[in-house]
Amino acid sequence: MYFFKLIFKNIFRAKLRAALTLLALIIAVLAFGFLQTVVGAFYAGSSGASASRMVTRNAISLASSMPIYYRERIRSVDGIKAVTISNWFGGIYKDRSNFFPQFAVDHTNFFDLYPDFILPPSQLLAFKRDRQGAIVGRKLAEQYGWKLGDTVPIQGTIYPGTWQFHIQGIFDGKEEATATRQFYFHYDFINEELKKNAPRRADQVGIFIVDVKDPSRIADVAMALDAEFKNSLAETLTESEKAFQLGFIAQSETIVDAIRAVSFVVIFIIMAIVANTMAMTARERLSEYATLKALGFSPWFVAMLVIGETMMLCLIGAAIGILLTFPLAVGVAKSPAGAFFPIFKVSQDTVVLQIACAFVVSIIAAIAPAIRSARVKIVDGLRHIG
Amino acid sequence: MDTANKAHPLVEILHLVKSYTRGDQDVPVLQDITLNIERGDFIALMGPSGSGKSTLLNLIAGIDKPTGGSLLIDGEDITKLSEGDLADWRASNIGFIFQFYNLMPVLNAFENVELPLLLTNLSKADRRERVELTLGLVGLSDRMDHYPNELSGGQQQRVAIARAIVTDPTILVCDEPTGDLDKQSASDVLEMLKKLNSEMGKTIIMVTHDGHAAEAAKRMVHLEKGELIDG
Fold it and tell me: Considering the entire predicted model, what is its pTM?
């Protein structure tokens, strides 16, 4: 008890130094937690992927489309339960900064393949009946204050013109990792307009989403499906939904790796700051440590005073930093930047990493000053003027 | 005091040598010191700066090791003790009084005096009783909650004296205990040391170059260039 009292009192002896070191620690732990959350958010979509769903796209690239009649041929492949379609729309709502993903989907069965989206049957029915109907995720609706029945204009970029949609349904996620920031509407609504205004672009599909009967046979079914379109006008590439989403992440892997590296650089910098603070502190107190040793306290006791003080400093900084990570993540999740991620939430792993980093920082930063303090010769220490 | 204790002096210094190595040169600090200090004695170690008086005090207090010779305290050769044993020995046998008090600034007077008792097996209640008694002895019962920066130099030195005697050590080693004090405070401190020596039988070894302070001692020992002039 006395030991901890001494440590605690020592921490706040040089108030300004303690406050600045704590501030640096808080910012470092907060930055580390935030960057780790960003990294986690990149992978969050894939963690919510279904084991039975596959994505079929044009083998050349995702930007190339496939004819819609592929749907019937895909359905005929052995092992396939259902097929639906999805087209990236890429429109702008009011301003370019209001980014959220929009998809033109097969209104008849898209939501049958996504039991992860919880939607009242009446809303689904209303959506199916309204050609301009749209279903949006809860977070997206909350972000823009949309209610059922609202009309939302979206400026097309890939599909020119201003498109008016009626909000007919708002879905929730079944799991926490389920994304609820998307905007879905009828593929037919777009396709019919294209048939009138740009017939060469009509009846084209970005991706087919395929549900398989037996998830353990997903690789075989994917091979069979792609074989069906071998040597055709648009060869296909089929992969599991998870692999498809990880493929997206792979495109940004360098960025993710850079973010991850920066998060650890932050920890390394704070380690140097804390080590410097503790070295200065220990140097100033050599005379006190020598006095303690003269009174009969062991070098181990002196070393533990330094280590304990560093650990308590890091603990306080880490605790505040961790606590602040949560509101920061909530703020980012609600901001336009949060629209890039299906979920943006501080994970348990991130908190554990933050605690582990603070612990490692405290130990490494304390080693040199602790050894120096423990080893100080009493006569030299007593002569020392801090 | 039993017969065994009377059989030999409390401190027996025989041909004590201390030198430091500076570069490839040996710098002698103490040369062939032989000195006995009896139990209950009050000695003033005097000499000019660099004469080796503080070094001798440090050796007797067990915070430095000699280069040669022997140093027996109560019959035990402390030069043979390991660092750990020497720390334990200091905790139970030596009370330190420094020129600049060397109190822990983050601890109040009570906590500073209690510090050496943490190395004993005394209960919290026993520690409290002993600290209060000791602070009463030095006349600081009403300053127990005060921190060093809230006390005058004289009061701080009295806290340091209380810390030195709270474990009831055999020897009090004082390194210029009045060196940082005004005349009145210095006089009070010397009176207190004399009282500790005469009434409580504490053996006191005090380094000073203040002739007035040395007069408080029963005996003066002079050192010059690392050699004992008299004693």
Answer: 0.75
